[in-house]
Amino acid sequence: MDKKTSAILSYALGWVTGVVFLFVGKNDPDVKFHASQSIVFFGAVTVLNVVLSVLGSLLGALGIIFSLAGLALAVLAFVVWIMAMIQANKTGGVRAELPIVGKFTAPYADQLAAAVK
């Protein structure tokens, strides 16, 4: 599988395919970067969704606010998911940072790529 396809597929099923391509994917630092970025972004979205769901359950009638926040988060995650795959396609699999997550992922991507072979 080429670099571009691996980079796109590292976002396909969120953090799950990020983990798969981090450990099983090509031994390419750019693919590992996309996989790491997928894990960080979609992992954070998953944690936030769980927190919003728990808070919504505990607060009864005020839970609608957390439900709406969860819906907004899901829409944002969907938009970023599509944007990440399009960007990976446009760049041919070369590193393309997501707006916020890329700044956290970039410093550690090379270390992670070297550690996971």
Structural class label? mainly alpha
Our count of domains comes out at: 1
Distance between the termini: 17 Å
Radius of gyration: 16 Å
Strand content: under 5%
Provide the succession of SSEs.
Answer: HHHHH
Major beta sheet summary: none
Number of strands: 0
How confident is the prediction overall: mean pLDDT?
A: 87
Percent helix? over 70%
Number of helices: 5
Low-confidence stretches: none
The global form is elongated
Structural commentary:
- This protein has 117 residues and is mostly helical.
- It has one domain (3-115).
- The protein contains five helices and no strands.
- It has helices at 3-9, 15-23, 29-58, 63-90, 101-115.
- Helix 1 (3-9) runs antiparallel to helix 4 and helix 3 runs antiparallel to helix 4 (63-90).
- The longest helix is centred in the middle third of the chain and has 30 residues, at 29-58.
- The model has no long low-confidence stretch (mean pLDDT 87).
Quick description:
This protein is an all-alpha fold. It has five helices and no strands.
Features:
mainly alpha; 5 helices
Which secondary structure elements does this structure contain, and how are they paired or packed?
Elements: H1 3-9, H2 15-23, H3 29-58, H4 63-90, H5 101-115
Helix pairs in contact: 1-3, 1-4, 2-3, 3-4, 3-5
